Amino acid sequence: MLNRATTSQKSFDVLNMLFMVILMVITIYPLVYVAFASLSDASRLMAHQGVLWRPLGFSLDAYTNLFRNPMILKGYGNTLFVVVVGLFFNLLLTSLGAYALSRKSLQYRKPLMLFIIFTMFFSGGLIPLYLTIKGVGLVNSLWALILPQAVNTFNLILMKTAFEAIPDALEESAKIDGANDFVVLFRIVLPLSMPVIAVMLLYYGVSHWNSWFNAMIFLQERSLYPLQLVLREILLQGEANANTGASDGDAAMLAVTLKYATIIVATVPILFVYPFLQKYFVKGALIGAIKG
What pTM does this model have? Predict the structure, then answer.
């Protein structure tokens, strides 16, 4: 009976591992396909059908023509500014708000939470937002991509839940020693909340990195365009093909590999960051999922 159970368990483990391997291949292959396609010769890629397991005639023409556009590096610089400065304000303001809302002694705590949650479901719309941004003088400024998105309601609630899980005794002992709320927050609460901090970095960072709609609405000068808007402009207006001076046929073939190259350029930085945050991410994202 024991041997039969052991054999069944081994069979289940083998099937489970096989299923996971197949699932992993299905998940990874689209990324591999895009990478190989971006490194392929445009004419051979257009003629190819079916699965792509390697670059077809290794070529860097797509990346060469992509980075020949001077706006690419400018877009990278603008995006890095928005990501770095935006993350600073995101973490600072979200942690301050979450800490205040997590304190049981806060007056009108429940009405404040209801008011904040209300903003998740109802908003003024795009036109009032634009008029507000214009009224405070942020139109055509990178700050228009940072300050209006300084605090996300869902992230605020997630961080508040994480702070509430920290024992009250730590705060009480610190205040007995003379610590104020800022000392408690920055020296006790935040160091003990690294998983949720990692989640905030990933959520806010990816949001800033992928943002293009607000930039399209609020920015007028092309020199202020973030990377995603520059890449969108290249794909839609064919600026990369115009810079090459290629014929229509060559431009059409180049556009095939250029499409994949833009995906790689926009995705790789985030893929490199994620492994460093992954060990915290699962734990932080599940905060508040189980109530004991």
Answer: 0.77
Over residues 184-237, the pLDDT tens digits come to 888 888 888 888 888 888 889 888 988 888 889 998 888 889 988 888 877 776
Q: What are the Cα distances from residue 281, in Å, to 102, 152, 209?
A: 21, 18, 18
Question: Is residue 135 domain-resident?
Answer: yes
Read off the CATH number of the domain in which 122 is found: 1.10.3720.10
Instruction: Give me the number of domains the chain comprises.
Output: 1
Structural domain includes residue 36: no
Question: Residues with Cβ < 8 Å from 183, sequence gap 6 or more?
Answer: 174
Question: Tokens 């806060």 sit at which residue?
Answer: 106
Q: What's 287's DSSP letter? A: T
Predicted pLDDT of residue 250: 59
Owning domain of residue 112? 69-237
| Phi, psi of 114, rounded to the nearest 5 degrees | -65, -40
* pLDDT > 50? residue 2: no
Q: How far is CA 189 from CA 143, 156, 159, 212, in A?
A: 29, 15, 11, 34
What the block records as the tokens of 19 is 């299923």
pLDDT reported for residue 278: 66
How far apart (Å, rounded) are the C-alpha atoms in residues 200 and 152? Answer: 10
Distance CA 76, CA 179 (A): 42
CA dist 236 and 137 (Å) reads: 30
